[in-house]
Batch of 2 targets.
Target 1
Amino acid sequence: MLENPKRYTITAALPYTNGPIHIGHLAGVYVPSDIYARYLRLQGKDVAFICGSDEHGVAISMKAKKEGITPQQVIDKYDGIIRKSFLDFGISFDNYSRTSSEIHHKTASEFFKKLYDNGDFIEETTEQLYDAKADQFLADRFVTGTCPKCDNPEAYGDQCEKCGSTLNATDLINPKSTITGETPILKATKHWFLPLNRYESFLREWILEGHKNDWKPNVYGQVKSWVDGGLEPRAVTRDLDWGIDVPVEGAEGKKLYVWFDAPIGYISSTKEWAAREGKDWEPYWKDADTKLVHFIGKDNIVFHCIIFPAMLKAEGSYILPDNVPANEFLNLEGNKLSTSKNWAVWLHEYLQDFPEKQDSLRYALTANAPETKDNDFTWKDFQARNNNELAAIFGNFINRVVVLTNKYYNGIVPAPNEFSEVDEQTLAELKAYPAVISSSIERYRFREALGELMNVARLGNKYLADEEPWKMIKENPARVQTQMYVALQIASALAVLSEPFLPFTAKKLSNILKINALGWNDVTTKTDLLPAGHQIGQAEILFAQIEDAEIQKQLEKLEATKTANKVENAKAEPQKDIITFEDFAKVDLRIGTIIEAEKMPKANKLLVLKVDTGIDVRTIVSGIAEHFTPEEVIGKRVTVLVNLAPRALRGVESEGMLLLTNNAEGKLVFVNPDAEGVINGAMIS
């Protein structure tokens, strides 16, 4: 671990531009990286916080085919949505670039060419999966099949999303083309491979020995598993029509593999930032006094801890990451987040549905961050954290301090009198919090750090509750001056310490208290964060309550998604055995109307119906009581099988059967005629 670095390069995983940002991305990568970057800036550190849109690879091509547009239209659409979402949510990137930019194409090509010229690649002709009907090779996600490690039948050609294994398309059992559904064939094609096996000893020494004690167990464990399993050469080119051209002779029609080109996007984005700011980019990637930290999700550990470091090592002039604090996954209401299934809380939609509540989501995602295991986001928990923690603890303390200061002193910070032992103890405890929170942040324990921030607010609430200045004001106003002075110091500290976690709240609170240019360490070193005689503003609500109706709306939106997914993924039952026309002719189907209905006594599922079939009125017992009330079905026109042999059900003879089916939600619906003029008794043929 690098001690006292001169500068920090912080990268956040480049989001794919095949869809918007959702809460899983935020919890796993963007909120923790933003907390870290904001914290370092408050300490006066030299920080380059780098990201950008990942705009190449199969995912983009698949999205373009699905939507019937070009890959360029796909990346332009989603880059715009993602970029605005990050800006509106307060993710404080120093630069957000695009891998479709000229500077990135040039940087990635030069990187590849240097490794190629140095002889770092293996050139091999291998057999790859090929869709003869589509006349193209099937890279990565253009092929699905059964995972050889966990038997998941829907694994992709690059990764199994069930067990997390990284795969090659040729590893899949019973592969199918996602383009045509055909079974692909093997066909020879030439590609360039990075021989990861050459870097096995380097990776063992650098990570397995050098970072045994400071990298997260989930990251260390996954790397160890890969290295112990034996590293093999990995293709860095693909047969695709979308991406960066492979810059060597004999590579026509081939593109750089997205996982070769994407991490180089951190470098090209840094170049773009440095050029704009008039800086030299190289120290941020090549100086040994620079601390490089990659923030990613657990599905990207292999690429950032094995493949990219091997690339950097091969190139020779770059530093290696000091840490890769990957998070686990965030689920949504008990189910795995999925872009393709629309099972997500999309950031741009959240910002529309909950205006000016960015910090409520930042807080909930940090408090429930999947730092050591997969966690679950629920709307009820989100509501409770906003109402019972942010509003009831943080917001309540600030409101009381500001209201009382304006009530007693017209908003002017009072001069303190003699400090009591409680006052001195409270102020000493306050001064200790920056170091406590720093320790958690610098060990990438952001959930723990947030808990300590809230303890500052709890400290303030306890102080006011114990001291009761509203009771003391009449009998000892001099004492109240000291009490309010102490409380205002706590409020000021919150304005500073909350900035990495709750930047919108910190800005609002700073405006209320009229604080300017306080740094992180000032909370510990300054005697007066708010000096006596300082004028503060009026109270504002920091955290409005979130009502049940708002949460219900979100739950209903998710239910609608579930229903839509069931409809889209519904599969018909297999066809039954073939029958002859003579068999069908024996079936007598008629149109009828239900004229009476009542529940069968002591039977939860059965309704006893009187049905006018046009040829008679008969009794039919039907197992539909869990789906319909008797009142709902009276008057319903139905399709009736009238020549079914009678059958006694709980002592009632049933003379026929109604035709029903299930909708996407599993609810029974009648198969019935809607056309006017169809009489009861009309035959169906």
Note: The mean pLDDT is 93.
Target 2
Amino acid sequence: MSKPQNSSKKDKPSKSGSPILRFFVKTGIFFAGLFLCGVLLAGMALALAWPNLPDLNAMTDYRPRVPLRVYTADRVLIGEFGEERRNVLRFNEIPDVMKSAVLAAEDDRFYQHGGIDWAGVVRAGLTNLINMSKTQGASTITMQVARNFYLSSEKTYSRKFYELLLTFKIESELTKDQILELYMNQIYLGHRAYGFAAASRTYFGKPLSEVTPAEAAMLAGIPKAPSRFNPISNRPRAELRQRYVLGRMHSLGYLTEPEYKQAMAQPIVMKSAEGTPAGGYSIHGEYVAELARQLLFNVYQDNVYSRGINIYTTVQSKDQEAAYRAVREGVLEYTRRAPYPGPEEQLDLPPGTENNPQALDEFLDGVFDKFGDSGDLLTALVLSASPTEVKLARSSREIITVTDKKVLGVVARALNDKAKPDQRIKRGSVVYIRKFGDNWEIINLPAVQAAFVALSPQDGAIRAMVGGFDFYRGNFNRVTQAWRQPGSNIKPFIYAASLERGLTPATQISDQPFELTAAQTGSKAWNPKNYGNQYEPMLTLRQGLYKSKNMVSIRILQAIGPQYAQDYLTRFGFDKARQPAVLPLALGAGSVTPLQLAGAFSVFANGGYRVTPYLIDRVTDSNGKVIMQSKPVVAGDAAARAIDPRTAWVMDDILRGVATYGTAARARVLLKRNDIAGKTGTTNESVDAWFSGYTPSLVATAWLGFDQPKSLGSRETGGGVAMPIWVDYMQTVLKGVPEEKPRPRPDGLLVENGEFYFSEFPPGQAVARLGLPEADTLGEFLNGLTGSTSEETRIKVAPGVGTQNNAPWSQKIPF
């Protein structure tokens, strides 16, 4: 029996299936069109971008620039300036163990993929998704070559697109061996070393052909983070990375089991090859090298960095290192005495982090990125702190415990529960530590600065120069660029001027308080003080300088005239515009640089000649040919005569007395020498502290203060903070150097009662007293004075002395 109704339903087209089908068809057409558009757009982008990709011939044309190099006088390298340091090797010259280490660390499927490791991309994506952070990357060796050779580091889609295109181009035009050779010669590996050959010399002091599997693994671990994983900046992190690479080499079959165990057990010995800048040079000449670079840049401009030019400075390596250490110790000693200001920063260290080595090291990575080491001052993270014990971490494998009572006493206030939040040391605090002997100390990164310069008084050759505590925290050179008030360091030059106006070392001068009213000054009353508010009825000129008495200095300047003194100071190389012709000039109200002061004291040391300080002895080209040679003015050249030889001799005699009986007596006691002369200097409120001193063959000036002027402390003086730097330096460089006798007394000097007089100002005609009431006959008898009252107050100008006459000493010190 038939069922037509059912039959008719079966034959009728389905209305419900038709819209779905049409939807899928339309969707398919839409996506096909979208895909076609994408292909067209990609094709257009490819057609436009591909011709603009760089020519790969340049990648294989190795012509590394030869950098500018700076040396000491005794040929020790102290600076190298250029974009890169390379030691280029061909593929067959690179040892297999180094190739294996690189492949294991960076791209173990390098010889299988076509430039992009899609399996690695998927693996890295899943890992990052699981960890909810970017813990893995998928850059291949070819992609790194493309990025490092031609592309900027900006993170944009267009840069990434060009990187992919260039990756494909490199893979299509170069063999795998050529790509790996490029990578191993050009990758940056920290401390300005490009390529593994340069890195091997930088970190191990050996050619790449001699590296062991353990050393190869350490080098191969650096590219991931050159600043954090190199063994100089962070040895523990570098070792952790090395062990990971060795494990990969073992699992990939590059190392047998015995080879792997031997490599894991091998101790790594760090030894930078001579002439590499790894971890700094053999001596700390950063300020010297930078100044030499600037001076030559003014001649050759940018071309100076690629011509292989060598600069030989006047600096002696032994002297330079002694100066560096003296400055560092002087600054740290002051810092220890000052109140501890608190940790560098307070971080939230999650509980138990120290129990997870990987988590602690990752946390410390962030700390070290922001707070780098400063020489022997090392960054550390506080894990726990109490008044009796502080536990710190440099890495998960380097935990330091400080329990020394003396050390903790320096930061005792910061360990107290009642300390202010920003001053308290506690868990998560970032601090600096320094090792001395077998112990560690906690010390803040110094805020105070210092400068030191030493030179030869015979020709002005700079022997040592340190422009600050840490060059890498700002290369401002305080020796040449810091204009500061000299305080009492200016007094010897005022006194020298007075000798040529009729005063003598025996002139008696009032030390009683001195004042000028507002009417006299035209503004505010001026009431200068002696240090410690201590006054005496009278002192001789010699005694006034021994004791650095302000009242004596002011009366001397008042007698000879500020204008005359201002002009006279230019003979020593001081800038006239920075030395105001006012009475406060006697107390150092002008401005000088440490280099100016050292050059000025040279005039006393060498018998009265002004020599121009200079730094560069000669310059050679890449073939060693001398292209520049200095020709310094030498003491003894009549054209360099700055002051009367008698003035220089008498001032030298007085300054030797300052170092024997006066404010600088401690210098002579510590050095145990009789050929020392010098002068301390401290400005108002102890803002600037100075010491300048010399022997007949070496002059040096030390300064200590804050870049933004503020008081060092009421009891901090030039003799207390600057002189120790000078003495520390001299103890090193004068060791084994025989004492030098004073120069012969020049003609034209008279001697009476043990004091010296110019022949044109003999006893009875020279100025006998200043600022004192007239003496009666009995007073003259008791004081051993001679001459009439009229001559006691008279000031004469020696014939031919005190005028400028277009003399060269009026010019500003050049280099």
Note: The first strand starts at residue 68 and ends at 71.
